[in-house]
Amino acid sequence: MDHVRSLTQAYSQAPWRKQTMFIGLFLLVVIFAALVAGIYLDVTARTATIGREIQGMEEEIESLKLSNAELETRLALLMSTEELEERARSMGFQSIEMNEAVYVVVPGYVSRQHVRLAPPPGPVKTVAAALPTAFTESLVTWFQRKVLPMRSQILEVRR
Amino acid sequence: MMSEHVWRYTLLGTIFSILAFAIVGQMVRIQLNPEQVEYFMEVREANLGTYRTIYPARGLIYDRNGHILASNTKVYEIGVELAWVENPHTIALALNVVLGLDYKDVLKAVSQDPSPNAVYVVLDKFVTQEKVDQLESYRAEIESTYTNRRGDDRPSLSGLVFVPHLMRSYPEKDRASNILGFVTMEGEGNYGVEAKFNHLLAGNPRNVWIPRDPNLAEEIPDIPDGASLILTIDRSVQSAMEAVIDDAVDDSGSDSGTIIVLAPQTGEILAMATTTRLNLNEYWRYSEIFKGNTPFNRGVSETYEPGSVFKILTMAAALDKGAVTPETEFLDTGVFEIGGTYIYNWNRAAWGPQDMQGCLQHSLNVCLAWVSSELGAKDFYAYLRAFGIGHLTGVDMAGEMPGRLKLPGDADWYDADLGTNAFGQGVAVTPLQLAVASAAIANDGKLMAPHIVRAVVNNNQQFDTPPRLIGMPISSKTANTLTEMLASSLEKEASDSLVEGYRVAGKTGTAEIPTPYGYSSSATNASFVGWGPVDDPKFLVYIWLEKPTTSPWGSVVAAPVFRQAVERLVVLMDIPPDNVRRKIFTQ
């Protein structure tokens, strides 16, 4: 019996075993740290990528706004009085004199109306919150809203 | 063997320990040195991101039918990132060739060493897309040609950056330039509606933090564009009126010309054309075109003595007060004394017995001076004030002048002024003031506020500007009586202002011009105010020709211009001849 005890003691107190335990523990810490660092890096990298994408999109929005303004101006140039008159003349049109105008009655004709580029101001409307409740309510509120009514329904069914 | 290893391990350990201590020591040194802390904080701040002022796109300006009169176009700021510059000479040469910039100036600016205080240098602003395309193609060409070459002398446009931004653009060039005004490179509105509504058009710039760190990136707040304006002017009418006044100035040899078209029933300005005009896309030529004190818009900014067109206001006041009736007889002896001053007719002749219509028809100064004296100074000036003479009309354009109406009690008012003011001398008005006052006669005595902005479009909502009644200086009956008198006068005179098929009312004006040495008889202001159709006025036209040389008389140079203007207006505004209109109405 004493022999077995001394063997176990010898095994447990062997220097190589202590070293193995120490190295294992150290490796465990290293692996854990590496895991945390890896997760952190992954999340940071993804955030950075998305952040960069946001920056890129902001730049694109800016660029598109400028392009829209430029196109609008080009269109206005093409539709300017000078351009239109020149095109009309080249197509054989000419401006009429007062005594050349012929007036006819067109039933239902509506004369030129006020130009409307946007709707008139309407009554002020309260806009509902855009975020779903999942982002705004607490767990307790959710529990009260979802689970408690179910409990009362179950009790109702049992009766 | 063993001691050899120990020695090596000790050496390595010592080196690493020294390094570690050095790093810690440096950290402590930086932390304890305020200058170092400040320096590194500055570097950190500089690299963390930047505050950028975001300027909203300037609101557009439209005519009453939605045609764009002022918009924005894309231009570029050209600069260099000093840290990226490889060959300053190439950049200086390219910008000299393409943009005409001074080679030495560019070279000096680009050759700076980059530092926290010198990162980016602006070389040129408001460069067109065409020029930038040219520079881009140069860059591509240089890159492809010298790809394999190494060394400091390798040609390169590296570091050159093009930053796009917006600049005001006017697709109609000089059309309605006097109304619109312009925007400088600094983004400031000058003259016209650009100046008057600068705060609305420009929007609200906002300072926004733009982080360089993508982890901190967030959505840039949506900054709404400036408000857009819809004007009351019709670009076709404006274009036609500009052509009419340009021709009139050429034909009459006048120094300048102004024409205003109003809608009497609403006070809307349908057109306002003056000479000279400026191509707003080249606004920097302003001082070259508007020499001396030449106003940008004579319609609202220049005052002058209007002459006989003013008689309609004198007659309106006298009729309304009951001082005279259309049938009141006056014996014109050719001279009238008032306040020690003798008033004579335009031809210095005596016209004999006249009724009030005759006085207007022959534009008799003597008669009108008598009319104002019959009315009395108190009532006469009260009516003129009610017509808006002597104060601002409040039109929504920058640079309006109030004119000058001397009143009894003023140090420079004399009894004789009552007589001379009656026929438009000794009183200074702007063309718009007189047009607005006359429009009240055309509009049943109702004085409408003149305005150029029909609606404001802001945050996707259109806010219309309704017509605004600002007074009723005379009764509807007086207005109609006077309109009838003026229409008959033109018909009896067989005036050059008459338009076939349309009954119009109006009055000519010829005013002597005051000089430091008295009134000049050789130079005059010729004018005409008229409206029609008489039974349902859709337009009022005011014409002023400054110092015409072919003839000094308004009836000769200005009246035909009214006819030409109306002949274009009735077509552009779809106004049928009176008989057709009545026929349509009875159907």
Summarize this structure briefly.
Chain A is mostly helical. Chain A has helices at residues 2-12, 15-78, 81-90, 139-158.
Describe this structure in words.
The complex is a heterodimer of chains A (about 160) and B (about 575). Chain A has about 160 residues and is mostly helical. Chain A starts with a helix and ends with a helix. Chain A is built from four helices and no strands. The radius of gyration of chain A is 40 Å and the shape is elongated. Chain A is about 65% helix and about 0% strand. Chain B is α+β, with helices and mostly antiparallel strands and about 575 residues long. Chain B has 21 helices and 22 strands. In chain B, a hairpin with a 2-residue loop joins strand 13 and strand 14 (about 340-345). In chain B, helix 3 packs antiparallel against helix 4 and helix 14 crosses helix 16 (about 415-420). Classes of the chains: A mainly alpha (about 160), B alpha+beta (about 575).
| Contiguous runs where pLDDT drops below 50 for at least 5 residues of chain A | none
Structural Rg of chain A: 40 Å
Query: Could you tell me the number of beta strands of chain A?
Result: 0
* Tally of DSSP helical segments of chain A: 4
Q: Approximately how much beta-strand content do the residues of chain B carry?
A: 15-25%
Biggest interchain interface, per-side counts: A-B, 42 and 55 residues
Class based on secondary structure composition and strand pairing of chain B: alpha+beta
CA(first)-CA(last) distance of chain B: 127 Å
Quaternary structure:
heterodimer
Total of DSSP H or I helical runs spanning 4+ residues of chain B: 21
Q: Give the tally of β-strands of chain B.
A: 22
Mean pLDDT of chain A: 85
Round the mean pLDDT of chain B to the nearest integer and report it. Answer: 92
